[in-house]
Amino acid sequence: MQATREVAAEQIVAASFASIRQSEPQIRAFTHLAEETAMEAARQIDRKRERGDPLGPLAGIPVAVKDVLCTRDMPTTCGSRMLRDFRPPYDSTVVHKLRAADAILVGKTNMDEFAMGASTETSHFGITRNPWDHERTPGGSSGGAAAVVAAGNVPLSIGSDTGGSIRQPAAFCGITGLKPTYGRCSRYGLIAFASSLDQVGPMAWSVADAALLMQVIGGFDPRDSTSLEISSDDYAAAATDGDIRGLRIGVIREAVDHEGLDPDIRSAVLAALATFRDAGARIVDVHLPHSEYGVPAYYVVAPCEASSNLSRYDGAHYGFRAEPNAELAAASGPLLATYCRTRGEGFGAEVKRRILLGTYALSTGYFDAYYLKALKVRRLIRADYDAAFQSVDLLVGPATPSPAFRLGEKVDDPLQMYLCDLFTVGANLAGIPAISVPAGINPSGLPVGVQLQGPPLGESTLLRAAAALQARTDFHLQRPQR
Fold it and tell me: Catalytic: 66?
């Protein structure tokens, strides 16, 4: 629309903020809105267009960014009191690439505190609600990023995925969410939860839109030591191909036959497989024998890395600081007292829980029994995937065990909340790409998603298969009733 001058960028962005004003009082998906700077950026795009200057691939398109990526002109809070007033002096690489592509950043989206959660209920700034049903969660931790797309506020958003935090909210909100191969997108400026698991990715209604966003944010970054020094694929072309004749698709039996899987989701997965078969794909059964250990291994590895990463928040360098308790200061000294009170008041309950779990697992006498053993299990899980991809091109299964659950239903039961990651943590532990796409609407009117997983650097195959599914179904075109 920008290139053909059908609609001015200023009009598009104004419409975005009009939508936000309508839905935000109910959904509460943003932690910060940047209307003034966004409107000025849109006017600059319009002036570039009028002069005939080249426009970026996202020129004039409103994009929302999860509040875990550093932005030089907006707060970056991670949904935590600890960083409530933190304003980074620089942009993350992903944000820098969005600006270079002429995207319009409308604001930062709500999230579980430090990305630790599956319901966006642990944020210091309050809960976010699912646009399909305001009494239900949008998922987490990228719940705000999913909700703003589902609510029609923006066509594109950026999330991060450590154990399913793009794919689970995408499934709950009926949109498309891609977790790329570890290292495909730069983590420079992504505030760390678990550094060997975190990955940035796109969220959108359609596979084609997610591929366009992935084309912009992917690529090598020398400032990230884990960034892969390889050229990016033509994701946009893959998402418009849709030819999957002869593609070998594996059905993860441990997931589809799992006793805890919601029957409506199982039916949606089987229907998607039938669609793939009709499109010319070959469907075969695949087993991932160590998948049952994915959640236990993840909830050792991730808290251990979090324990290390979050040790930097001590009230001495930046972020929230609490004055020391006089009694503790007298007993332990003012520095330790400041550390203790700052971390006690600055972190929420779930973050403290994971720090404690990780610190315990890393402590002398327990390191081998917990952390080292979890790393060995992680290696076995990766080996299962490697073996599976010797015989198939991608894997298909459910994205979540259930549709979006009610707010408050699991927040006080950590084990039940952790099991929400049952089908997603494997891709993070193995470092492989995975995508969640809309695959149905259950009898309660809630969206359900199907997950496709591919071998390392297999994003193009995932996008091609997901595009084939969306070319033959209309679930990605369904919208929540306002």
Answer: yes
